[in-house]
């Protein structure tokens, strides 16, 4: 079965979503808006909802930024997910937390708590941070180098997983008769001393219901793929052609054997930005309307961000990108820069055409068509074993999620490609992932 996640940027994935009368204008600080999205996605049997994050407002040209709400007024996502957990029962709850500007103990504790609060539905999207401005909120003048970020991320994830094993599953016997609350021999101290972190442990919360909350990863550079091959159970990635998606899928899954892992232990879910109409004409028209709302200065700012902060002001918008931009020289997301450059080359786009394309879908693949067209494309990629599922990023929220849930999901279900009821109780079970054994227990604790 195909896996489905929803990435819900507050007013929607389209950069001009907030200008649409159909969007929830104050979405970034409106809790009920997210509850509604979660309930819709849950009724449609989505595996998970995912909230991206950055611990900084975006830097850049303030006049342009003031026309774009993303990350300007934005909930801390694990706090938000804890609230959503209380209002839902099945849907997985995945949020980003950066390994560059956190400590492993805090993250282990936060996601273990979310896993308990949601009864086994938590997931952690491990990022190394693509927003350079985060560094300035955490005692640094500049971002760690790409290499250091990934080295730190690898150690960070190892520590977090070790901390989640602090307690055996049955440690808390809470026996009033004997007066013993927990079994002392079920408590394990990690005693980690590494390059970036020293963490004694143990964690002050019982082992999470899933053993470990599910680990997602969204960096697609070589370093990112290596980290994912070793540790990730879900990978979010931007893929635009079936050929590239298949190559990425095969490459990443083949790397897993180096870490003693099976391909089924990782679900690869590229982003998908569906623009749906009851006819193709209607879908095209809707897309054109959305694109027409993009404010040029915002589009340019987003493109400049995606290219690692390259200042494009002053260049001819109807000419090509300057040839000096390269993914290798960037300290932000190498895979994002590469994906934008590939898109510009593949389709021979001017700067204006490129920002319109980028800004509309925020770098993700767009499919414009009827529900059947969209299901056809999804089915083709799935049957080609280029994906395990998709991360659906509706253009305007809440309306475009409602439409996807009411039209594309039943079409996928009719074709036998997507579930009609949840298989398990936890995110891990619904994704078909095994529950990790406790490293401190000989046979592993299940
Ligand atoms: C679907 C998707 C979601 C992402 N979410 C975040 C996020 O929430 N925060 C963040 O800093 N980076 C996010 N990223 C970027 C990557 O996680 C990563 O930090 C960045 O791409 C740098 O890694 P790379 O050079 O290996 O690609 C996301 C990427 C994708 C494709």
What would you say this structure looks like, in words?
It comes from Paraburkholderia phymatum (strain DSM 17167 / CIP 108236 / LMG 21445 / STM815). The protein is α/β, with parallel strands linked by helices and 446 residues long. The chain has one domain (3-431): TIM Barrel. The chain is built from 14 helices and eleven strands. The strands form two sheets. The protein has an eight-stranded parallel barrel with strand order 1-2-3-4-7-8-9-11, surrounded by seven helices. Strands 5-6 form a two-stranded antiparallel sheet. Helix 9 (296-306) crosses helix 11 (351-361) and helix 12 (371-383) packs across helix 13 (399-414). The radius of gyration is 22 Å and the shape is globular. It binds flavin mononucleotide (FMN). The site of flavin mononucleotide has 26 residues, from strand 3, helix 6, strand 8 and helix 10.
How much strand content do the residues show? 5-15%
Major sheet: size, sense and barrel closure? 8 strands, parallel, barrel
The total tally of domains equals: 1
Q: Based on DSSP secondary structure assignment, what is the total number of beta strands?
A: 11
**Lateral arrangement of strands in the main beta sheet:** 1-2-3-4-7-8-9-11
The CATH superfamily label reads Luciferase-like domain
**How would the global form be characterised?**
globular
What CATH first level would be assigned?
Alpha Beta
- CA gyration radius, whole angstroms: 22 Å
Report low-confidence residues grouped into runs of 5 or more: none
Distance between the termini: 25 Å
Mean pLDDT: 94
């Amino acid at each position: 079965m195909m896996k489905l996640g929803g990435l819900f940027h507050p007013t929607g994935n389209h950069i001009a979503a907030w200008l649409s009368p159909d969007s929830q204008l104050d979405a970034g600080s409106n809790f009920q808006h997210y509850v509604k999205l979660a309930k819709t996605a849950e009724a449609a049997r989505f595996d998970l909802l995912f909230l991206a994050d950055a611990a900084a407002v975006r830097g850049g040209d303030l006049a342009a930024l003031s026309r774009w709400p993303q990350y300007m007024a934005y909930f801390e996502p694990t706090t938000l997910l804890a609230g959503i957990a209380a209002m839902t029962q099945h849907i997985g709850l995945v949020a980003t937390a950066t390994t560059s500007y956190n400590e492993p103990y805090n993250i282990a504790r936060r996601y273990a708590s979310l896993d308990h609060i949601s009864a086994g539905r938590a997931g952690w999207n491990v990022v190394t941070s693509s927003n350079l401005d985060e560094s300035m909120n955490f005692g640094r003048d500049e971002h760690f180098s790409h290499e250091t970020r990934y080295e730190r991320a690898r150690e960070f994830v190892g520590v977090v997983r070790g901390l989640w094993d602090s307690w055996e599953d049955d440690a808390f016997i809470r026996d009033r008769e004997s007066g013993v609350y927990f079994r002392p021999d079920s408590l394990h101290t990690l005693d980690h001393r590494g390059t970036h972190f020293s963490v004694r442990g143990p964690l002050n919360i019982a082992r999470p219901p899933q053993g470990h909350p599910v680990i997602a990863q969204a960096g697609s550079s070589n370093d990112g793929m290596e980290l994912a091959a070793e540790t990730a159970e879900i990978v979010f990635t931007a893929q635009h052609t079936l050929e590239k998606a298949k190559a990425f899928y095969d490459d990443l899954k083949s790397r897993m054997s180096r870490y003693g892992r099976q391909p089924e232990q990782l679900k690869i879910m590229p982003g998908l930005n569906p623009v749906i109409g009851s006819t193709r004409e209607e879908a095209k028209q809707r897309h054109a309307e959305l694109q027409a709302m993009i404010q040029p200065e915002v589009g340019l700012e987003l493109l400049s961000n995606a290219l690692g902060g390259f200042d494009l002001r002053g260049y001819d918008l109807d000419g090509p990108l300057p040839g000096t931009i390269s993914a290798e020289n960037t300290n932000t997301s190498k895979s994002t820069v590469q994906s934008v450059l590939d898109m510009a080359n593949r389709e021979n786009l001017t700067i204006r055409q490129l920002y319109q394309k980028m800004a509309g879908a925020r770098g993700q693949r767009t499919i414009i068509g009827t529900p059947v067209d969209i299901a056809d494309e999804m089915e083709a990629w799935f049957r080609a074993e280029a994906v395990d599922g998709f991360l659906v990023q509706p253009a305007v929220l809440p309306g475009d999620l409602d439409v996807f849930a009411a039209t594309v999901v039943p079409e996928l279900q009719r074709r036998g490609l997507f579930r009609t009821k949840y298989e398990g109780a936890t995110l891990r079970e619904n994704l078909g992932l095994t529950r990790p054994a406790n490293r401190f227990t000989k046979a592993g604790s299940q």
